[in-house]
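Structure first, sequence second, as always.
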């Protein structure tokens, strides 16, 4: 073939309706799970309280979705199968404030173009149901109660090339079941049942939100997660986030819902990951279920035909709200959560006094699940008031602010283990030693110069003293460093210039105030050149041009940047590592107890800066099992 020859000109013509529907179906229907998702969406929009999904061969041979919703009137059945026909919206204003799961009017038409489909529906007060064949459009009487049944057979029979891309029946069924599971999480008020090959595969009865979470994700997830609840203006956040030690190797337990719709959003995923930044080890993935509610006008759901992507009007505000809420949920440790819950239970069962709060330095009311890792609740008789064991964290006295001149003095000043009591921690230790009711117990020994053994109400506590002290010092440094909103900037004697893309130039201009707050002064030097005239004072050795590029990339993609903060935290983590008590250092009991009390009063003390656990609990039951007691 001559490479210079021109292809024969073909006239422009309108595509047949069937081909148009099949092209559209390629966007909407990827596999059987896509059909299940669309049909369940319609059932929920119809007000169903019970939805049953029946599958054969993973949904490839047959998909049937039954609901007890409002039903479809007989004269509307033919219209329901036409493209862009819907009852959900009627104009642009309704599109911008859509609150239903479906609204595009494409799903049934797309499914009908690639599979054999029939609809049986009956409205309230109708004498009988009507069945319509998707191919012929013929209507005939049928028997069923109020609601709708949609049956889809031989998926992709009219587009066999697409069918070749499907996986095994077991894989396709797993995807379809996951689609129903997501709906079940979002709508605990609706009952769901999934049948496969004539067998009941999963069933979730209508329940409360907490019960539905336990039913769908299991009691292990509930036990290894904390409740998330935050209200920031019109934005509301609820759900549960898994503790760092319960992180998984895969991201298969991450659920995000925006106004009741399951979505995948890189902005929120980035915010959640940032909240776990220094609490996950390696490439571990957190588990979470987050329900985000905000006004429909603040989110655009008309981004993709599958409706699994959204776009926020103010992405930066959403990012910051999610990150802050997750960080607050992760801040309390397992030990303090168990004890505070026990104290709250004790007061509630007592003389009706006010709920427990923190000390004068920390007056936030704390409410946590009343259980420990072992599932054993703390007894009120074993618990003591929060203020009795929580030492004050007066940071200027316990840890200095970062000095501008390099000096090893900060290493000595950050040691929280002096021979004399500090802030009454040792006094509290002596006052309550006989009760053995501290969350992390009473120190009894040191093993190998690395681990501290302590006894508490549940049994034995093993603490990695270097990892624990490292987290304590790190959190104090972070708190001391975050006293101001703006980061100190250091002007550069000679500005650093670098070639910038059009996108980087636009971001630098639009985000000038944000960059100044981060200590970066960026200004155009030429048409495609940016000059950095100041940098964060805390990062004297950073590659300024690379730092600026990374910050601009974050701002462009996520509407927020943590590059500078991450770099600062890396420095603080290094300082904390060097300032923490080292292995093979011998501690006396008073020093060990002081470290345990500091752990109880430090946020995120369950893990070190690198995501490794700082302590483990061995219950009496586990110890008895090791020695076969009672067998």
């Amino acid at each position: 073939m001559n490479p210079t020859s021109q292809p024969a000109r073909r006239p422009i013509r309108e595509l047949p309706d069937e081909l148009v529907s099949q092209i559209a179906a390629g966007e909407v229907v990827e596999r059987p799970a896509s059909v299940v998702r669309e049909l369940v969406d319609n059932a929920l929009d119809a007000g169903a309280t019970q939805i049953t999904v029946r599958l054969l061969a993973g949904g490839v041979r047959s998909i049937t979705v039954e609901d007890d919703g409002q039903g479809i009137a007989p004269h509307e059945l033919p219209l329901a199968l036409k493209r862009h026909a819907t009852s959900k919206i009627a104009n642009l204003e309704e599109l911008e404030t859509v609150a239903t799961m479906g609204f595009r009017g494409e799903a049934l038409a797309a499914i009908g173009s690639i599979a054999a489909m029939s609809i049986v529906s009956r409205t309230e007060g109708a004498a009988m149901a009507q069945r319509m064949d998707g191919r012929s459009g013929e209507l005939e009487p049928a028997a069923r109660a109020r609601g709708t049944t949609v049956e889809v057979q031989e998926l992709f029979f009219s587009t066999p090339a697409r069918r070749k891309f499907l996986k095994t029946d077991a894989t396709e069924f797993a995807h379809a079941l996951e689609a129903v599971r997501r709906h079940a999480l979002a709508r605990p008020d609706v009952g769901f049942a999934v049948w496969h090959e004539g067998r009941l595969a999963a069933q979730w009865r209508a329940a409360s939100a907490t019960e539905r979470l336990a039913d769908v994700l299991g009691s292990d997830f509930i036990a290894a997660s904390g409740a998330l609840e935050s209200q920031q203006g019109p934005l509301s956040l609820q759900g549960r986030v898994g503790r760092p030690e319960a992180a998984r190797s895969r991201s298969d337990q991450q659920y995000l819902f925006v106004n009741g719709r399951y979505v995948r959003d890189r902005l929120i995923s980035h915010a959640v990951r940032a909240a776990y930044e220094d609490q996950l080890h390696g490439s571990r993935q957190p588990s979470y279920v987050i329900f985000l509610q905000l006004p429909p006008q603040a989110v655009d759901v008309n981004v993709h035909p599958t409706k699994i992507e959204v776009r926020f009007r103010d992405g930066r505000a959403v990012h910051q709200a999610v990150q802050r809420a997750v960080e607050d949920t992760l801040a309390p440790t397992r030990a303090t959560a168990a004890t505070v819950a026990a104290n709250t239970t004790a007061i509630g069962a007592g003389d009706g006094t006010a709920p427990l709060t923190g000390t004068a330095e920390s007056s936030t009311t704390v409410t946590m699940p009343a259980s420990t890792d072992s599932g054993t609740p703390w007894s009120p008789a074993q618990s003591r008031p929060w203020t009795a064991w929580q030492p004050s964290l007066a940071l200027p006295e316990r840890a200095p602010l970062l000095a501008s001149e390099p000096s090893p003095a900060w290493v000595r000043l950050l040691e929280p283990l002096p021979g004399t009591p500090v802030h009454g921690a040792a006094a509290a230790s002596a006052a309550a030693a006989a009760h053995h009711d501290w969350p992390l117990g009473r120190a009894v020994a040191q093993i190998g110069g690395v681990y501290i053994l302590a006894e508490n109400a549940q049994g034995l506590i093993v603490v990695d003293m270097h990892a624990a002290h490292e987290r304590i010092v790190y959190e104090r440094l972070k708190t001391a460093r975050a006293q101001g909103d703006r980061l100190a900037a250091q002007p550069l004697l000679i500005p650093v210039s670098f070639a910038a893309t059009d996108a980087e130039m636009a971001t630098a201009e639009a985000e000038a105030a944000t960059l100044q707050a981060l200590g970066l002064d960026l200004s155009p030097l030429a048409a495609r050149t940016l000059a950095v005239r100041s940098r964060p004072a805390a990062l004297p050795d950073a590659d300024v041009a690379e730092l600026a590029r990374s910050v601009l990339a974050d701002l462009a993609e996520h509407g927020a940047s943590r590059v500078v903060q991450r770099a600062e935290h890396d420095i603080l983590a290094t300082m904390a590592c060097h300032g923490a008590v080292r292995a093979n250092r011998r501690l006396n009991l008073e020093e060990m107890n002081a470290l345990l009390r500091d752990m109880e009063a430090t946020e995120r003390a369950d893990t070190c800066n690198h995501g490794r656990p700082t302590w483990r609990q061995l219950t009496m039951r586990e110890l008895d099992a090791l020695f076969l007691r009672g067998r």
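Margin note: Residues 61 and 194 are 16 Å apart (CA to CA).
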